[in-house]
């Protein structure tokens, strides 16, 4: 099983498009072209064997992302500046 | 977390319209219902290629042939998107194929009707794909992420399917008397089976409550059927064809068309395997799978060889 990622146009990220079965990478690439880009959906394709993807555990989500939760000072809106300040 | 709190967490995701993803905990029934629904849909996409495949070599022009070929090719893709979505739930492709080939799994009963004339290509695109789209658009917001994403892709591709079918019907309806008759005949034969595509009436569809609760069905069978009747009757007027239902009447009070009683005996009979083409469809599918075995074997052998050659060169 292979995961297919497609860049829809130059300058954009590759995005997960779906999956398919194939005997090897070359065949996965050809199948991805045939199935996922029949309407010029992409300018570049990545195929990755599904077993090579390690996904985070959704049950750990709270502890995983909790450290970022209370750091609102990482956002520009945290800082109050006088209205007169321009271009910042 | 205890099972109880897992369930609570799941319920709250559903209530807040947050997508469920493959690694999330989900109740067994939810998983089972999804596998059944998604695989049934996948089977329908690939069996659905057969009635139309029947006309590819006999399409009346090169343009028509290219269009029909592209449509049937899309349906193969839809099957793949949906099988892949089902696989994220932990069932294998082989198992799903096996369920189809042994008759354990069902596919949409509409594909058990024969395609007798070229007008059937018009009627199928217009009515069958039209009904499928009606069913599928709400599923783009289904609760299971991989399913919803597959449906978005499917729906994007479906719209040309219906339009090319309507175009065929339009051409025939504006053609000679014989052509117009052919269009009306196809309409007559496909209208009622298309209404059956939405499934049994709500009152006899006990799973609907759970499915709506889980957001793997967003509208009930009867709601979707009514919507389909309302828009399709207007489209038939543009074609100048008459809907084969003597009880069809606009109901001012309801703001909907009333329509005649559906022959559910026929529906169940076809579901049980006694439709005009059930046997033929399944046999064709099984034969395609068996005849394709050497291709799959060759692909694996070729990949192994390629790997070996690469290893040697390195
Ligand atoms: Fe479909
Ligand atoms: Fe389709
Ligand atoms: Fe279609």
Q: Please state the oligomeric state of the protein chains shown.
A: heterodimer
What's the alpha carbon Rg of chain A, rounded to whole Å?
A: 21 Å
Distance between the termini of chain B: 50 Å
The main sheet of chain B orders its strands as 1-2
Mean pLDDT of chain A comes to: 90
Helix content of chain B: 55-70%
Q: Biggest β-sheet of chain B: count, sense, barrel?
A: 2 strands, antiparallel
**Fourth CATH level, the homologous superfamily of the domain at 1-52 in chain A:** Phenylacetic acid degradation B
CATH topology of the domain at 1-52 in chain A: Ubiquitin-like (UB roll)
Class by helix and strand content of chain A?
alpha+beta
So how many helices of chain B? Answer: 13
The biggest beta sheet of chain A reads: 3 strands, antiparallel
Commentary on this structure:
The complex is a heterodimer of chains A (88) and B (314). The N and C termini of chain A lie far apart (48 Å). In chain A, strand 1 and strand 2 form a beta hairpin. Helices cover 24% and strands 22% of the residues of chain A. Chain A is elongated and about 60 Å long. Chain A has two helices and three strands, in the order ββαβα. Chain B is built from 13 helices and two strands; from the N terminus they run ααααααααααββααα. In chain B, strands 1-2 form a two-stranded antiparallel sheet. Chain B starts with a helix and ends with a helix. The chains are: A alpha+beta (88), B mainly alpha (314). The interface between A and B is medium-sized, with 18 and 24 residues. The complex binds fe (ii) ion (3 copies). Residues 45, 78, 132 of chain B line the site of one fe (ii) ion (FE2).
